[in-house]
C-alpha cells in the first residue's frame, strides 16, 4: 500500500526515470558510433568533417584518439549504471563483495560529465548561430587555415547536437541510477532542480565567455 502511494506521489519525470533504462543503451550506442566514425577516423588521418588545417596535425590526431577512448569509456559507463553491480559490489569479489556502493561515488562524475555535455552543446549551438549570422566572430589560433562558416555549420548541425543529446541520455541514466540506489524522493526532486539551475547558469557563463571574448579564461571547449 505504501509503495503504491509513493508511486502516485511521483511526478512524470520521476516515474519515467525510475523505470527507463533505454537512455543508457542509446547513449552507449551514440558514444560508440561517434568514437569510431568521428574521433578514431580523424585520428587515422581522415579529413571529412574538418574544414581546417592544423599547425600540428599529429597533435590533433592524438587528441582525437584519446577523446575517442574517453567517449567510448563513458558510453560503456552508462550501461554500468543500470546494472545491479553498480550499486552493490558482486559477492564474487574477494574481501569487499556484497558491500553497497555509495550513490555519490558514481553520481558525481556522471553529473559532472552530463553538465559538460549539455553546456558544451547548448552554448556551442547558440554561438554558432551567432557566428553564421555575423553577429560575433571567433578566432582559431591553432589553425593554419579554416573555413569558419563551414566549421560553424558542421558544429551547429552535427557536433553540438551530439553533445546535447548525449548530455540528455547521460542525465536520464543518472536519474535512474539515483532512484535505483535508494536516494530519497525529496532529495532527488530538489537535487534535480538545483542541478538544472547550475547547468543553466554554467551554460550562460560559457556562452557569455565566447560572445564577449573571455573564453580563454574559463572555456573548456574541445
Automatic annotation (TrEMBL):
Please provide the record's keywords in A-Z order.
Answer: Membrane, Transmembrane, Transmembrane helix
**Domain of life, source organism:** Bacteria
Ranges that cross the membrane? 21-42, 62-82, 103-122, 162-180, 192-212
**What's the protein here called?**
DUF3995 domain-containing protein
Q: Which organism is it from?
A: Oceanobacillus arenosus
